[in-house]
Amino acid sequence: MGYVAVKGGTEAIHNASELAEFYRVKDNTTPIDVKQIRTQMRLAIDKVMGEGGIYAPEYAAIALKQAEGDVYEAAFILRAFRTTLQRNYYTEEINTREMFVRRKISASFREIPGGQVLGPTRDYTQRTLDTAKATETTADIHLFLEQVDAKIDPEKLQEINSFGKVIDLLKNEGLLKPIDPSDDRKLVDITREAIKFPAPRSARLQMMARAETGGLMALGYSSQRGFGGVHPTVGELRYGTVPLRVKDASGRLRYIGKIEVTECEMVTGSKPGKKNTPPYFTIGYGLCFGHNETKVICMSTLDSAMRRPELGAPANDQEFVLYHTEGVEAMGFTNHLKLPHYVTFQSILSNTRASVERSKKANLEAEAWRQLASV
Fold it and tell me: Are 306 and 201 within 8 A, CB to CB?
């Protein structure tokens, strides 16, 4: 590829940044508070953190404000910021059975451990445009919160418990496919090691956890429509907070706080294999930062699909799925096309002109021969 430098250097970069900032504030409106973005745009914040690969709600809010609401750009900014940070610890594996559940549903079973907890979702709303939001005031918010608080009966509050998993119902009946001892189960850190194909499941799940939600949805949906052969059912979908622990220098486990995550386990029925082999269920898994149900549903669907490469659809191809859902890299490459490609294009243009001239000359010579032949 041929590239050329843009004139101006540091000054040009400064001018570009200044112009972009001018368009953000040119109407001289009241600045949006970072706390407001963090709390009232929580789903956008969760997407930015997930795709940026760092759990930092306040920094995600700053990035989203800086990027004028562009989730791709904000994730890019956050991913770049993350590379400047020193890594001091690896957390221990989180145990989602310890989750403080805010939402927990299953589409596979009506009765599940602890019952269905609908929690915060717009799945059951009418999705009509609420024009009252245009004139919402602080007093309106206070009144709404008071009304919600008035509906809570302190005497009916129960002690918070952890809940059993829905997949345990299948496991206890021996309906889950046994673990294949030949599966590659090594733990790969994709931020420290280059991805190689076929990639172990740990690498695939990590890449999808940082992947762009829309990309995962497109491929997950393609599989559900038949281009991948995987059309699973939500075994269990959970959203809540889980504790994090690290080992200190002495080897002792230390609790360092909680993070919000969404987890999904999708159940897929497998076809019978050899004679007298029962058709076990298999589980596709997805987990990401924050509250992002679409992402984990598609992530767990693709987790199942990529374990069936023999079907040959895009959703079953590891390299196709993992490279083409990497939002920051895809956005960067797509937008680099706006940079000067003068040398490359001039070379193509020169070759095209020469080819056209040769074609014209050949056509003229052919026409001359036809005229001579007709005399």
Answer: no
58 falls within a domain? yes
Residues 228-233 have a mean pLDDT of: 87
pLDDT given for residue 1 in this prediction: 45
Angle at 185 between CA 317 and CA 233, to 5 degrees: 55
Domain that holds residue 178: 96-332
Neighbouring CB atoms inside 10 A of 115's CB total 11
Q: What pLDDT sits at residue 278?
A: 77
Q: Residue 80 — very low, low, confident or very high, per pLDDT cuts 50/70/90?
A: very high
Co-location of 191 and 122 in the same domain: yes
User: 173 with 273, same domain?
Assistant: yes
C-alpha of 341 from chain center: 31
Task: Reply yes or no on whether the pLDDT at 3 is more than 60.
Answer: no
Give the model confidence (pLDDT) of 290-324 as tens digits.
999 999 999 999 999 998 888 889 999 999 999 99
Strands of the sheet containing 233-247, edge to edge, are 100-105, 233-247, 253-269, 281-289
Residues 6 or more apart whose Cβ sits within 8 Å of residue 45: 37, 38, 57, 60, 61, 64, 290
Total of domains in the chain: 2
Q: Which of 49, 82, 115 is the last residue of a domain?
A: 82
* Tokens 């890594």, located at residue: 87
Whether 41 is covered by a domain: the verdict is: yes
* Residue 35 counted as domain residue: yes
CB contact at 8 A, 109 and 166: yes
Question: Could you report the per-residue pLDDT of 31-40, keeping only the tens digit for each?
Answer: 999 999 999 9
Please tell me whether the overall predicted TM-score, pTM, comes out greater than 0.85 for this model: yes
- Decide if 367 is inside a domain: no
**Integer Rg of the chain from CA:** 27
Distances, alpha carbon 172 to alpha carbons 105, 165, 167, 233, in Å: 20, 11, 9, 19
pLDDT at 4: 47
> Tens digits of per-residue pLDDT, 11-45?
777 788 888 889 899 999 999 999 999 999 999 99
Same domain for 71 and 149? no
Task: Check whether residue 277 and residue 308 sit in a common domain.
Answer: yes
Q: Examine the fold and report which residue of 82, 112, 132 is the final residue of a domain before the chain moves on.
A: 82
Q: Let me know whether 173 and 297 are in one domain.
A: yes
